[in-house]
Structure formats: structure tokens, C-alpha cells
Amino acid sequence: MITPPEINWLAILPLLVLGLGAAVVLLVDVQWKPAPGRLNFLAVVILGLAALGTGAQGWWLGRHEAGEVTGSPLPFGGMVVIDRYAIFAGLLLVTVAALGVGAGARFFESLGRRAAEGLALLLLSTSGFILLASTTQMVMMFLGLEIGSISLYVLAGFSRQEPRSEEAAIKYFLLGSFASAIFVYGVALVFAGTGSLDLLDHRTLLDREIILRPAVLLIGLGLVVVGLAFKVTAAPFHAWAPDVYQGAPAGTVGFMAALAKVGGFAALARVLVTGFESYIGTWGTVVAAMAVLSMLLGSFLAVVQSDFRRLLAYSGVAHAGFILTGVVAGTSGVGSIWFYLAVYAIQLVGAYAVVAAVSGAASAGSPLASYAGLARRQPLLARALTILLLGMAGIPLTSGFIAKFGVFQDAFRAGFGWLVVVAMVASVVSFFIYLRVIVAMYMQEPEGTEALSVSRPLRVVLVAAIAVTLVLGLFPIPLLRLTAISLPL
Amino acid sequence: MVIALPLASATFLHFFGRRIGEPRAGYLATLAVAGSFALGLGAGLPFFSGGAHATVVTIWEWMPAIGAELVITWDPLSVLMTLIITGVGALIHLYAVGYMHGDERFSRFFVYLNLFVASMLTLVLAGNFAMLFMGWELVGLCSYLLVSFWFTKPVAAAAGKKAFIVNRIGDLGFLVALMLIFGAFHTLSFQGIFERAPEVLSSGMATAIGLLILVGAAGKSAQIPLYVWLPDAMEGPTPVSALIHAATMVTAGVYVIARSASIFELSPVAGPVVATVGAATALWAATIALAQKDIKRVLAYSTISQLGYMFLAVGAAGHIAGLFHLMTHAFFKALLFLGAGSVIHAMADEQNMDKMGGLRKHMPVTATTMAIGTIAIAGIPPLAGFWSKDEILGVAFARGGWFSVLWIVGLVTALLTAFYMTRQFVLVFMGEPRWESEVHPHESPRVMTLPLVVLAVLSVIGGFFNTPFRTALEHFLEPSFEGVNLAHPPEGWLMFALLAGLSVAAGLAGAAAAFFAYNRPADLWRRFEEAFGPLWSLWRSGYRVDDIYGATVVKPGLRLAEETAFRFDLPVIDGAVNGAGRLVRTVASRARAMQPGLVRSYGVVFAGGTVAVLAWLVWRGG
Asked: Which of B571, B595, B545 lies closest to B224 in space, CA to CA?
């Protein structure tokens, strides 16, 4: 007899909120034709509700662990999961998306009637990445990955008057499809090797028996890792990132990059840690190699960029490498990965928000020359960007330092001392990248003389990003405690 | 909280100082420091009654994994240091209100001064070496800012730079010591280190750490061979000299060694080396002080010499004697510096003692208080200097062996100290006026004389905190040195009388000799100095150490820097960097030129990477 799967609506509450919210945004737009600013506000409210939904999951999980409520944390036949890992990912993704709305407020306003579509896509993309992070089922992961990515492909080409934006969208789409195909093929091979799609089954299986000829399984796992490495722009699967992040509308790039990084790493770490930690000796080297390649390529190529957005994209490749440094530590590295992701994702949104303010929200490209003398044209932007870049560089007393220290420490304890040495070299090199921009902002003569205006939502985003950089740099303990317990089931 | 008050005041004055206007900014700063003195006193009271235990307060956790947090140690040792810093600091702040009167950057001066007090408190209250080092560097920075406060004077700017560079050398040693400590203990927290020191450290390791700490301490506390910056630092405003270069910052080295007592105890070598450096410095600087003409330079070399005494004490494990002398020295040396400042103020910025004399009649308060300071430092009972100096000498004598030699050195230094201080007093305040006719000396305003009087009182009674008859300070400090074998002066009346008699005799002899040599017309004492011939000019030039350092260290250093900059750096390093950049650019542009259909080539890279990943996985795992 088939037992009906257990239903727990709470598990998909944030997804429901976001999905319905996207529909609501579109319908409201059709019915009332509100001013675009109002729609931005509505989107933030929906994201806030989703955050509440995630919070409710946390509350439920707490009571469940205390034995006060019955029910499984794996409802719907194990298709989704409620665990601390998913909850932290959900909260982080929703925060990043909300900040992304703030950073892109100008852009969405400039879209006029199409703003609703853009915001709906943003909400859907967020829901996709939340799903990606909150399931142990590989097919569900694929679903989440596609929902999240396809929305981003469209957003990348959203600025119609910019040919470079369309080019970026096409490139993103083609290569992204390539990556997705590889991911699905990997899932199929993993199924062929184990007979299951569920990471929890894989764990019990691998704990119980030794697979004599695991080649099929390993090829599958490798393809899955490659597919996710594409999303997080780890080298050598990063080639698309500079073009896309340069060409896509400035107002959207921040959360595009940040959402994909958070979601991708959440899934990558869950696959490797939950399902296949017993193979850590095998995949550890692959991940370490990707980390080295990402850190070195990212840092060195960022040095020679003349466009700030390409520079940030390459530095994003380097950051992916730094985070991978934490992944090699397995379960014990998860806390540091979360800390790093949380800090970096928010700094990234902040940095691209400055780009949007300097080069125009719908623009493609942002030459470094336009940052010369920014301190004189708009001191607020220059100061904010300086703090964010110092945070990304990992200067002590910023949260970036704590984040780097955490992943390095975990990798070192896991026996990857050589990797930590490479990472330190790369972080020294990467310091020059950011310093170059800071020097240009303060020491060089400005090109134009007109003052730049900073809108109110943008101001909020910048303040939040600076707070994350400085406050968490000085008082990292609360977040460190939180990330340390945000472990997968 | 004790730290926060001066820090808040510094921040406030930084932003609003100019608006508040001249005297009020100074009073606010003074109040802030006095406030933290009151707080420190209140929080320290339980220790005086003997009922309290040392507590550790964690203010802020930064990276607990390596013991780098803001943790405050509140034990008798830090209470004592806090009270000295804030107490003497408040008096000097008050004095500075008068002294800096009319300076353009009046409020800025108090910003730095407050910042210094806050940093110094950070140093002495720190509960781990990370925070201590932070305070250590911050006081160095403040010292640099304050020495070159009158940066328009090239001498002052150069002096600031010198202080900074020499201190860096010491800091390097200290930093290496910290790394060794972290390597051995995996933490920087005092508790974790000092409790486990006997188990963890071998005596060789303890010696290495101890000697490196000594290098750092010698830099900050101006000991041989790193003392050269302190005399030059006298280019700063006199309150700065009094606060930083006499009463507080320079004692940081002594404090660190006392704090690390349990490390030094494990090494058979480190302690005696510290003591020897101290004794040598004491004698060396005292001879230089004999022949100085500049009123502040006499005091500067005297400070170096007195710090040598403290090093002698802590090196001989007489930590309490060392800290006792630190305290009394803070009283009377601050007094002497402020008195000298008062004289300089009165003489329209004249610092040459040749052009003074007979000032007693014009500045009675300054003269009286300076006389008390002179007697105190000369070690004549019952003033403060006698008790503390005598305790140090007693400790050295009691240790015997090599320390007996150091004891004799200390005794000779005591004689010299009495001599040069009396010489200074006589030259400035007695005899015939030798100043130029347009100078009209006058007594300083009340804000300046009040601190003088208070400090004079302290110099008189400060010694009674710890006499052989009443060991209050010793009882007070003992909990801080739990588990450390302290050296004590010899017991017994007869011994005490004998030793004390000897040092008093030395002091009196020195003072009397100077009095008779200098209390006569100028040509007579000039002839007296000439009788020493080249020796005197050698002393006057400070053994020409600056010239020697200039020829042996500075000039080759400069040449090395130039060589590296132009011969090596430009073509080699820059070439390599530019070359690497060019290489990357070339490769990047080649790559760009190679790609007419970008997406396809990206796909190729992608596929290549995938194949590499799979190949490895299959090869390793399959």
C-alpha cells in the first residue's frame, strides 16, 4: 500500500510567497498601473513576507527539535527539507534580493511598464535559488537551479537599448544551458551509480557499503560539481562571468551575481558534504585545484582590467576560489563558507550599487576612468566603495578579514596547508586590485565635474553593506555562532 | 570605562575642539582624565582593603580562537599603573592648559594628549598580548605626533622621526617575541600564558622570548643601545616630555617585563641580562647628564638613568621595588619636568642653563618645588626617591654574585645623580643672574604652579607607601605576582641601616660636591668643568653616540635604501612587475584576438575543464 506523502506547507511557504508574490506584482501592475517606485516597495514587502516564512520554519524546527511538534523535517516525500542550512540560505537569499531591489530601484523605475516583469523575475529567481538550497533531492535541485537561472538570463538582457546587454543575455543563456545539461547528465549518472536521487540515501549507502567500481558514480558527481561550479564562477568554468556582468544592466548585476553565488555554493556544499563526504579524499583535490585556479586566475586577471565591472567579475572568480578553500574542509568548513558568503554577497550588491550610481542604472560597462576623482564628485559613494573594497580585500577589522581567516583556518585544519599558502598569496595580489580603484577615486582628477545623485533606496543599500562590512568586522561573534550551527541535515 | 573617558574626550575635541575655544578644551580634557582617575580609584578600592581578587573583564570578543579580544585585566598591578597614569596625567593636563596658552593648535594638542592617555591605559589594562601590542603601538604613534607637534620646526620633525624609527627596531623584537609566545602557547591571553609557562617553556625558549621582550622594552624605555631617541624627543612641548617621556610611556618597558615575570623567571639568563643593561644604562646616562647645558636634556638623560634603575630592579626579580621606583619616579620626574617647563616659560623659551641663575627670587614656588624634586631624586631621606632607590639597591645587594657588581654601579650612579641634579638646581636658581637684559623672568600662572605643588607633596610622601617598616605597596602588589619568586632586600635593622647609610652618603657626597663646585661665580665653575678636559666634552656630546650611529648605521642604511631603490627596484622588481603585467596583457589580447565566436571558445574551455575534472576523478577513485 502506498502511504500518502506527508504534507507540511511550512516547508514551501517562502516559495509560495515568492511565487504568488510574482503573480501579484504582475496583476497589480495590470490592474492599477502604479508608479514604478510603488512596485519596488511591493517587491520588498513580498520579500519581507518570505523572510517571515523562513523565520516560521526556524521556529517550527526549534519546536520540532524540542519534541513539541510532530512531523518530519523532510515533508513531501523528502522533496524539500527544513534544516538550519536551508533556513540560513533562505534568509540570506531574501536579504540579498531585497538589497538588490534597492540597488536596482533606479533601473526598475526607468523601465516604466516593464518594471513589473523585472521584479517578478527577481522574485522568481530568488524562489528558485531558495529551492536549490533547501532540498536534498537532485531533481528538485535541478528544478531550483533552472527557475533561478532562467529568470537571470532574461534579466541580463532586460535593457533593450543596449546591444551589449542582449549579447550578455545570449552568452549567459547558451553557456548556462550547457552547464545545466552537464548537471542533469551528472544527476542521471549518480542515479545510475547508486539507484537514488536523494543525497541522504547516498550517504547511508556509502556509509554502509563500499562500491567497488564507482567510476559511473564519480563521473556523475564530477558533472554535478562542474554544473554548480559554473554558477559560482569557479575557474575554469568562469569564462562567461566577465562578459555577462559587464553587459547586463548595472542595476541588476549585483543580485544576479550574489544570488547565483549563494545558491550555487549552498547546493555545491550540500551535495559534497551531505551526500559524498566519504569521498572527500577524491573530490577534495578537485575542489582544491579549482580553488587554486580560481584564486590565481581571478586575482591576476583582475589586475589588468580597465573596466570596473569586469574587475569585480574577476575578483568574484577569486572569491569563489577563497570559498572553495573552505569547501575542502567538508562539514567542518560549512560555517566558514556561510560567513564568507553572507559577507561577500552583501558587499557585492553594495559594490554594484555604486556602479549603477556612477555609470547609470541601465548601462553596460563601467570604465575605471569614470571612477577617477569620485571622492570629489560624490564623497559618499567614494567612501562607501572604499569600505566595501577594503572588506573584499580582507583588511583586518572588516568582516572580509574574519571571513578569509575562517576559511583559511578550516582548510589548514583539514590538511590543506599548501592551499592556504596559495590563498594568502592570492589575497595579497587581490589587495592591489582594490587599492588601484581606491587610489583612482582619491588621488586622480575627476573626468566630469557634475555631481552624482544618490537615491534614497541606494543609500539604504550602501548603509547596510557598510554595516555588514564594519560591524561584523568588529563584532563577528553573533554571526559566527549562527553560521556554525547552520549545518545541513 | 576608564579608557573610554579620555578616548571620548579626544574624539569630541577632535571634532569640536576648535569651536570650544582655548581654555575650555583643555579643562574638558583634564576633567576626562581626572574622571578616569576617580573611576580607577573607585574600582581599585577593594584591592586596597585586600578583599578583592584579580578579575578579567571581556569587553569585546573579536577572534577568541587566537586570544585576540579586548579583555581587561584588573589586578593590583594594573590598578597601580592606571592610578599613576591618570593621576599624574590629570595634573599634567592641567599644567598644559597654562603652558600651551596661545598656541594655534591648542585643542589639537589636547586631542593627542587624551588619545595618549587612552592608549597608555589600553596598554596597562590589556588582558592579552594582542591588545597590549595595540596599546604599545598607539602610544608610540601618540609620542610621535606629540614630539613633532611643532612640526614647522625641522628639529622637532626630525626628532619625531628618530623616535619613531628607533622604536620600530624595538617593536620588531617585541613582535617576534609575541610570535614565539603564540607559537608556544597557541594563545596570547595572559591567563593562558602565565599559568602554563612553567610547563610549556623550556629555559632556552624562555630566554629567547625574554631577550626579545627586552629588545622591545629597551626601545620603548630608552635603554642601551636604543636610548638615543629620548633626548631628542625633548623637542616636544614640555608637558609632553613630562607625561610621555618621563612619567608614563617610557615605563611601559618596565611594566611589560614585570607583567611577564613568570617568563623571565624560567630563564637563568634573561633576568641578569635585563639587570645588566639597566645598570649600564643608569651609569652611562648619568655621566652624560653631568655635562649637559640644556635644562631639559639633563632631565632626559636623568630619566634614562632612572629607567635603568627600574630595569636593574625587574631584572633582579625585584619587581615590586622596580614598580615602586616607577611610581615615585613618575611623581618627582614629572615635577622636575614641569618645573623646568615653568622656568623655560619664564625665560621666554630659553633652555640653556648658562643663561640662567638666580631665579630663586623671581620664581619662589617653582624653586621650592624643584628643590623638593631634586632632593627626592638624589635619594636623600625621607623623600620618595630614597625609599624606592634604596629598595632597588637592597635587592641587588641581596642577590649577591654578579648583582653585587651591579649594586656598586647603582651606588656610583646614585652619587652622580645627586651631583648632576644639584648642579642643575644651583645653575638655574642660585648664584648671579646670567640672563640677557631683555628677559623678565616671572612666576608662572596658578594653573601651572598648582600641579607643581601637588606633585611636590607626592614626592615628599610617596616614599611612605613602601618602607621597610610599612610594606603597604608590597602587600598590595603581591597578588599580581602569585607564583613568582620575588627578590627582597635584605632583612634586619643593621643591614638596612648600613645599606641606607651608604646610599645616603653617596647622595649627600654628590650633592655637596656639586653645591661647592657650582655655587660660586661663573668663571670659577667653568674652570672646574674645564679641568676634566676632553672627558667633559665627551660627556657633553653624549659619547658622540649620535655621530657613531650616523656613520655606522644611518649612512649605510641610506645608501642601501638608495641602492635598492635605483639599482635593484627600478630595473629588477619594476621590470618584473611590468613584465608580468605585459605578459598577462599580451596573453589576454592574444586570447581575445583568437576568439571571433566567443561563446564557442568559452564552451571549449568549459568542456576541457570538465574533462580534466572527470579524468582525475576516474583515475583516482574509479
From this structure: B545
Judge if B419 and B476 occupy the same domain.
yes
DSSP 3-state of B274:
helix
| Grid cell locating B501 | 647609610
B427 inside domain: yes
Averaged pLDDT of chain B:
80
B449-483 tens-digit pLDDT: 888 899 899 888 888 877 766 677 777 777 777 77
Does residue B147 lie within any of the structural domains? yes
Select from B214, B230, B263 the last residue of a domain: B263
As a whole number, mean pLDDT of residues B491-510 equals 83
**Axis-axis angle for helices A250-270, A138-156 (nearest 10):** 170
In B, which residues are within 8 Å of A279 by CB distance?
621
One domain, residues B283 and B314:
yes
Tell me which of A296, A477, A479, A481 to substitute to probe the interface with B (most B C-beta atoms closer than 10 Å). A477
Which amino acid is present at B292?
Q
Chain A CB contacts of B63 under 8 Å are: 402, 405, 476
A186: nearest CA in chain B? B614
Interface-testing mutation among A189, A226, A271, A412, with chain B (most B C-beta atoms within 10 A): A226
Of A338, A353, A305, A367, nearest to A456 by C-alpha is A353
Q: What's the 3-state SS for chain A?
A: CCCCCCCCHHHHHHHHHHHHHHHHHHHHHHHHCCCHHHHHHHHHHHHHHHHHHHHHHHHHHHHHHCCCCCCCCCHHHHCCCCCHHHHHHHHHHHHHHHHHHHHCHHHHHHCHHHHHHHHHHHHHHHHHHHHHHCCCEHHHHHHHHHHHHHHHHHHHCCCCCCHHHHHHHHHHHHHHHHHHHHHHHHHHHHHHHHCCCEHHHHHHHHHHCCCCCCHHHHHHHHHHHHHHHHHCCCCCCCCHHHHHHHHCCHHHHHHHHHHHHHHHHHHHHHHHHHHCHHHHHHHHHHHHHHHHHHHHHHHHHHHCCCEHHHHHHHHHHHHHHHHHHHHCCHHHHHHHHHHHHHHHHHHHHHHHHHHHHHHCCCCCCCEHHHHCCHHHHCHHHHHHHHHHHHHHHCCCCCHHHHHHHHHHHHHHHCCCHHHHHHHHHHHHHHHHHHHHHHHHHHHCCCCCCCCCCCCHHHHHHHHHHHHHHHHHHHCCHHHHHHHHHCCCC
Rounded Cα–Cα distance for residues B4 and B12 (Å): 12
B479 cis-preceded (ω within 30 degrees of 0) = no
Range of the domain at B594: 558-621
- Provide the domain count of chain B: 3
CB B145 within 8 A of CB B155: no
B550 lies in a domain?
A: no
Interface confidence, given as ipTM, is 0.82
Q: What is the pLDDT of residue B460?
A: 87
Assess if residue B547 is contained within a domain.
no
pTM of the predicted model as reported, rounded to 2 decimal places: 0.68
